[in-house]
C-alpha cells in the first residue's frame, strides 16, 4: 500500500506516457534531485534516516521521486508500461515538471538503482552541475543482468522465505515498504546496459559513493576512474546498511558543499 507521510505531502507528475508518478520535497534553496533504490521509496531512502533533512539544512531543496512501480507512484502490471529505460524517461519527465532543462543549474543523485538511473540520465544528455552515484559500481551499470536472477527469485517466491534464509531480510524490507512484487518484476525488465565508452564521455563532476562492505554492486573505484571527473568515497556498511547510516548523507553534503556557496 502507498505510504502516507503527512509531514511531507505527496505531489504528482506524469510520465511521458501519462502514468501518474509521485514525489516529495523538503527544504528551500538550490535544487537537488535524489532518486531511490530498487524496492525502496524516496521517503525510506532519503527522509527516514535523516539524509534529506541534513541536505535541506545545508541550503538544498531536496526533491525525491518514487519510481514507477514503487511507493506512491502508479504500479501498473501491464508489460507495456515498462519499456526499456522508462525509469530514466520518468526522471526526465520530473525535470520537465519542475521546469528544468536537462542542462539547468541543479544537482542530481541516486542510490543503487537510483545511482544507475543517474548515470543513464548523464549519458542521455542531462548536465547537472554535479552528480552523486551511490551504492552502484561499474559492473552493475555496464551489465545490468548481474543481479536480476536474485531479485527474480526474491519476488517470485515472496512470502516463502524463513528466518534462516539469506533472502529473509530483503523479504522483510519488501513487506515493510509495501512493495508490489508483480510491478517490481516489470521494473527489472526496464534495465539498460551502459557501455564504458559512453560513461567515459560524461563531463559532469561525479561523486561515486559505496558502502565499505558492499561487494555485490560492482566497483565504485573503477566507475570513478572511468568518469573524467569522478571522485570515489566510501562509508560504513553493506548495501542495505550503508543507506541507513548518517555518514551517507554527510558524505553527500560534504562533497556538494553548502548551497549558498555554490551560487
Short description, anyone?
The longest helix has 12 residues, at 86-97.
What does this structure look like?
By secondary structure, the chain is of the alpha/beta class. It has a single domain, classed as Rossmann fold. It is 35% helix and 17% strand. Helix 2 runs parallel beside helix 12 (246-256), helix 3 packs across helix 4 (113-123) and helix 6 (148-156) packs antiparallel against helix 8. The longest helix is centred in the middle third of the chain and has 12 residues, at 86-97.
| CATH-level-4 superfamily name | Alpha/Beta hydrolase fold, catalytic domain
Question: Roughly how many Å is the radius of gyration?
Answer: 17 Å
Mean pLDDT: 94
What is the quaternary state of this protein?
Answer: single chain
The CATH class assignment is Alpha Beta
Q: Looking across the biggest beta sheet, what order are the strands in?
A: 1-2-4-3-5-6-7-8
Gap from first CA to last CA: 40 Å
Number of helices: 12
Structural class: alpha/beta
- The proportion of residues forming helix, as a percent range, comes to 25-40%
Beta fraction of the residues?
15-25%
- Tell me, briefly, the overall form: globular
Low-confidence stretches: none
Order of helices and strands: EEEHHEHEHEHHHHHEHEHH
Largest pleated sheet: 8 strands, mixed
Number of domains: 1
The number of E-state strands comes to 8
Task: Say what the CATH topology is.
Answer: Rossmann fold
The CATH level-2 architecture is identified as: 3-Layer(aba) Sandwich
Amino acid at each position: 500500500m502507498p505510504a502516507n507521510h503527512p509531514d511531507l505531502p505527496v505531489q504528482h507528475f506524469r510520465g511521458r506516457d501519462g502514468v501518474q508518478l509521485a514525489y516529495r520535497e523538503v527544504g528551500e534553496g538550490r535544487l537537488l534531485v535524489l532518486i531511490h533504490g530498487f524496492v525502496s521509496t524516496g521517503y525510506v531512502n532519503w527522509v527516514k534516516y535523516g539524509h534529506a533533512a541534513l541536505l535541506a539544512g545545508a541550503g538544498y531543496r531536496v526533491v525525491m521521486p518514487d519510481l514507477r512501480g514503487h511507493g506512491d507512484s502508479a504500479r501498473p502490471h501491464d508489460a507495456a508500461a515498462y519499456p526499456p529505460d522508462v525509469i530514466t524517461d520518468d526522471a526526465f519527465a520530473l525535470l520537465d515538471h519542475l521546469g528544468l532543462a536537462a542542462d539547468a543549474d541543479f544537482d542530481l543523485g541516486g542510490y543503487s538503482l537510483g545511482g544507475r538511473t543517474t548515470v543513464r540520465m548523464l549519458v542521455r544528455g542531462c548536465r547537472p552541475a554535479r552528480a552523486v552515484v551511490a551504492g552502484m559500481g561499474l559492473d552493475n551499470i555496464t551489465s545490468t543482468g548481474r543481479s536480476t536472477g536474485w531479485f527474480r527469485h526474491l519476488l517470485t517466491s515472496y512470502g516463502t522465505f524463513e528466518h534462516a534464509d539469506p533472502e529473509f531480510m530483503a523479504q522483510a524490507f519488501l513487506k515493510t515498504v509495501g512493495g508490489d512484487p508483480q510491478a517490481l518484476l516489470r521494473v527489472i525488465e526496464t534495465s539498460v546496459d551502459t557501455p564504458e565508452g559512453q560513461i567515459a564521455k560524461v563531463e559532469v563532476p561525479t561523486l561515486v559513493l559505496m558502502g565499505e562492505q558492499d561487494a555485490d554492486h560492482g566497483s565504485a573505484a573503477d566507475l570513478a576512474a572511468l568518469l573524467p571527473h569522478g571522485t570515489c568515497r566510501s562509508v560504513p556498511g553493506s548495501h542495505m546498511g550503508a543507506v541507513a547510516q548518517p555518514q551517507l548523507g554527510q558524505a553527500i553534503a560534504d562533497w556538494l558543499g553548502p548551497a549558498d556557496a555554490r551560487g
